[in-house]
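Q: My labmate handed me this sequence with no annotations at all. I'd like to see what the chain might look like in three dimensions before we decide whether it's worth expressing. Could you predict it?
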Amino acid sequence: MIALALVTWQVLAEGPLARLDERASRALVDTVPRGLSELGADLGNMTVALPVLACAMAYAVWRGRRVAALYAGLAMALVPLLVIPLKEWTARPGPLEPWAAGYFPSGHTATAMVAYFGAAFLVSNRLVPVAAVLTAVTGTGLILRGYHWPLDVLASLCLGLLILALSSTGTRRSSG
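A: Here is what I predict for the chain of 176 residues:
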């Protein structure tokens, strides 16, 4: 939570961390073929991530873990409820679209993180490394393609951790 607040403050104040972020982004964009970075970025699309979570939720319900499936769904519902107001409030322009606003935090990264980790927690904890790789590839793809600044992705990772922590706390309390 502190990291999210710090990053948000730096973006709003256009502080030294935000300036460093912009320099890093300029150095990173298009350093890999666009098709590759696009593929990574697409892992955070709702049309990709949500079906993965939905299948895991159905599996959890079939295995008698209805409450866990419910909390995973509620966690996913929190993503737009938290990301959209932050995007509106910060109105950060994009790396390749300085005339546009609403890039901070990255909704695709938060979607990927909550969907893939939620699915892993519902199916098998052995899938957690897969969720981590999918989330990392999503964030990296977004940065390398120029869709998001690195701090946008970092903020979403912090937000995703918060959402997943709330979800797992709720799941533990309901089963305890």
